[in-house]
Design a protein that fits this description.
mainly alpha; 8 helices
Length: 192
């Protein structure tokens, strides 16, 4: 078997090297999987008549040359203000990557919240016990709760001398994009 594709994503030396080189401190196999699933989710939503215009207003025109955009990104890096506009530096490369990174982060945050609720842990941030974050109609509420829980888990990790679980600061633009993704995934799942 060759060391190609996702298999190399579990090599700890390669993962650490990529994290540093690409300034992606949270590069994991589950993150990669969620990123790739996000591309498929985009494709499914793109079949709707009402999605693409809304997507382009939020993320930009995905019809821009993908290979040229990636080559530009790899040659020049992200724009200096990428942290204010994107979840990760590679999200700045192309609207498809912005969508995939944003969606992956929404899935991270939702799963952190789901794990918290499933474990029976309580927090004043949770709306109520048994709260279903997947069907939460208020995306901003979901993002607030998830980010608050992630910060709490980060504090627990620090108490044990471990790295933060969730290393990202959510800019206002990132929060809008996360809310957009949540609303569209929820709409798609419910057939709305």
């Amino acid at each position: 078997m060759t060391r190609a594709g996702s298999v190399v994503e579990v090599d700890p030396v390669l993962v650490a090297t990529r994290r540093e080189a690409l300034e992606e401190p949270c590069c994991t196999m589950i993150g990669h999987m969620r990123h790739e699933i996000a591309h498929m989710l985009w494709w499914r939503l793109s079949l709707r008549d009402d999605f693409l215009d809304a997507f382009r207003d939020m993320f930009g025109d995905e019809r821009a040359d993908y290979r040229a955009a990636l080559q530009h990104y790899f040659n020049n890096g992200p724009p200096p203000d990428w942290r204010q506009r994107f979840m990760t530096s590679c999200a700045a490369a192309h609207p498809h990557e912005d969508w995939a990174e944003t969606t992956a982060h929404l899935l991270h945050l939702t799963d952190i919240t789901d794990s918290f609720v499933a474990a029976g842990v309580s927090s004043p941030e949770l709306p109520h016990s048994g709260w279903d974050q997947y069907s939460e109609p208020n995306a901003e509420r979901l993002i607030h709760v998830a980010a608050s829980l992630a910060v709490g888990v980060n504090h627990v990790n620090r108490a044990m001398g471990l790295s933060d679980l969730y290393l990202f600061v959510l800019s206002q633009i990132a929060r809008h994009k996360l809310a957009f993704v949540h609303d569209w995934l929820r709409r798609g799942a419910q057939g709305l």
